[in-house]
Q: What sequence folds into this?
């Protein structure tokens, strides 16, 4: 600490705080504001349903206005919009293919036209396709999965970056599969590992600009992606292998995003949170 006073040096442990100059701060500034994200503008990809929807509603409850980017799930998107409006916040729905950079640029242009700025980016959209063998993963599936799950994170961040400023935040959704792998989701797990590396690298790249980048690695969460991926048998067993022996709900993951998007996590960047039902992950 460059501004530390010589009088702060103490000879006796554990030391006395009242003698320190400067004094340690213990009143979190954000705690004085009942709304952690008041009047912030947040873009959430894949915000129409599942974890994205829960994050969107949680952000709205904390005072944020929301832009939802999604593929074509219009009924789900309108339901999410309704929930956000019920919280008294503004919302814009933008259908687009996040794997195509030109569509991403146009979507962000629409957001900025509506809200003038962007404060928070949540990269969350994903797809997965269960295969028994690597031999069954076609070139088309591989490219499609990577375009949705990691190319879109690059495209979104590139498009939003000119509008971010000191204090802005980026939160990326990765997965427990990035750490322990998944024998049925080889390409999906690979993209989620890439997201961890992207998060850590981008955090290092942007730290001097005062922009924080973190991630969330959910475990088995009950979302439409699960019901559209696995067989009935595997769905019935979904979540049973974690210590809590059940799948999590999107609403149990959303607080991690609120924390990382807000000033409550002001001393964190390049980190990953693990709401996963108790599975111990070294990462």
A:
């Amino acid at each position: 600490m460059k501004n530390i006073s010589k009088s702060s040096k103490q000879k006796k442990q554990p030391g006395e705080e009242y003698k320190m100059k400067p004094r340690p701060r213990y009143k979190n500034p954000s705690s004085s504001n009942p709304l952690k994200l008041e009047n912030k503008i947040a873009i959430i990809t894949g915000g129409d349903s599942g974890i994205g929807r829960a994050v969107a509603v949680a952000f709205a409850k904390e005072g944020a206005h929301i832009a939802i980017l999604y593929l074509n799930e219009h009924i789900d998107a309108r339901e999410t919009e309704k929930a956000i409006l019920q919280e008294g916040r503004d919302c814009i729905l933008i259908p687009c293919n996040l794997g195509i950079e030109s569509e991403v640029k146009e979507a962000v242009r629409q957001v900025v036209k509506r809200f003038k700025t962007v404060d928070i980016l949540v990269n969350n959209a994903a797809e997965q396709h269960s295969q028994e063998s690597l031999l069954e993963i076609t070139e088309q599936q591989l490219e499609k999965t990577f375009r949705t799950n990691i190319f879109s994170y690059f495209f979104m961040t590139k498009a939003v970056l000119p509008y971010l400023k000191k204090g802005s935040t980026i939160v990326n959704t990765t997965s427990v599969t990035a750490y322990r792998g998944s024998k049925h989701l080889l390409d999906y797990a690979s993209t989620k590992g890439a997201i961890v590396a992207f998060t850590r690298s981008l955090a290092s790249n942007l730290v001097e600009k005062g922009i924080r980048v973190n991630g969330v690695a959910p475990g088995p969460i009950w979302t439409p992606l699960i019901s559209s991926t696995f067989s009935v048998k595997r769905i019935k067993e979904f979540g049973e292998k974690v210590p809590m022996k059940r799948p999590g709900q999107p609403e149990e993951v959303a607080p991690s995003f609120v924390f990382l998007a807000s000033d409550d996590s002001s001393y964190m960047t390049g980190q990953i949170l693990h709401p996963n039902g108790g599975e111990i992950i070294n990462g």
In short: Residues 127 and 145 are 6 Å apart (CA to CA).
